[in-house]
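Hey, sorry to bother you again with one of my protein questions. I've been puzzling over a protein and I'd love to understand its fold better. Take your time with it, there's no hurry, and the full record follows here:
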Amino acid sequence: MRKKGKEAAIFLRTEGGGVAERIATTARIDGGGGYVFEQDGTSFRIEAKEGRIRIGRRGEINYEVDLRAGEERQFTVGTQYGDLRASARVAEMSVREGDGGLEAECRYFVDFSGSVQEHFVRFRAKPAGLVEREEEKG
């Protein structure tokens, strides 16, 4: 069970649109069970449960995409040049919880008015104390 205000060690890997990003940092768990963290001036919020992954990003590019297995979902990407309407269709999704941690993966397609891009996201979170204990053993 994720507890509000606790910290977790997280790893985020995203690929899509010719860009790959990897982030390893510490996140805070918010009241909705989401993991909140910042990297290079951009803030993120990731929430996952069976059949659903919600990703929010605020910075130079802003969006909140609610990925749901078997559904096509509409969302808006905000940029300095204006807003882009898009839709996301999930191809594969896996969410696993256990030992106070979370692992989520999703392959999905984003359609920007007929221009379709394949995207992939992998997110892992473990309680910060658990990671420290594992490192002490190693």
Remarks:
- Strands lie at 7-16, 19-29, 35-39, 42-49, 52-58, 63-68, 72-79, 82-98, 101-112, 115-127.
- The first strand starts at residue 7 and ends at 16.
- DSSP finds one helix and ten strands in the chain.
